[in-house]
User: Fold this.
Amino acid sequence: MGCRRGFTLIELLVVMAVISVLVALLMPAVQQAREAARRSQCRNNLKQIGLALQNYHASHDRFPPGYVAGATYPATTNGWGWTAMLLPYLDQAPLYNAINFQLPVEHSTNLPSVATMLPGLLCPSDQTGAGTFQITDAGGTVIIPAAPPFSYAATVGDDNSEADALTGNGTFYRNSGTRIADLVDGTTTTVLVGERGFGYVKGTWAGAPNGGLVRAGTLNPWPAATATSPVFLLVHNNWINILTDSDGGLDDFSSFHTGGAQMLFADGSVRFIKTIITDGPLRRTFWGMGTRGGGEVIQGLE
Assistant:
């Protein structure tokens, strides 16, 4: 019987080199497929939010308020936000029933509910870090010890409106009660909700805890914000790419998808809007998508 011949060292090195090249070629395709799946899930999250908003409107003849406040401005008490109002329409009726809406968001009775993680309100591509985070006031006192991350925010209007103001020219603001009939710009061109990456801005779904501060996320190069709590869940319809924003972008739309972010429109559609990084007509068009009755001509955005 003859001897069985094995691989020589050169042949082994050649095989290993070929395998390495194949792996290097395959990895981008795998990553691309994974991101496509994550983007699809994020799109579905926004679709579900859109359906919940439509069902809420059908029941109440209006969209939920941006946040509910009975206290004198700028206090936000009780502070419950639009997402909390949507819980029964997001298959979260038990959580909704566990909340005492007569008490503030930050009241100890509500803290277990506020700490509840809702996967449908997280983009799979979002770099959410270790999970829950603390919300503090300006003096550093912890208001909410464990708040879950939140990847979506509703629009208060264009860049000239303020997310903590008494009114906004968008759909959601303090004690708002916007109806579909109020969206005179048209439901197909009015943005209701969009992505805001938790890695850029720390936000939570419950609402606007009184005195709470908005904090920059771990990937936001700007220092901790001094803005008050309503922008935890509301946003100007400003730039998507916050890394180019001169004011720190602590309330702007953002995402970890390549090239832009996904937006939910009032007609229930979800569209991917490319990153806006320049001034001029294109940016103004994007601003106009956040207003409910500004009369802007919306064109030129994919």
In short: Residues 9-60 form the longest helix (52 residues).
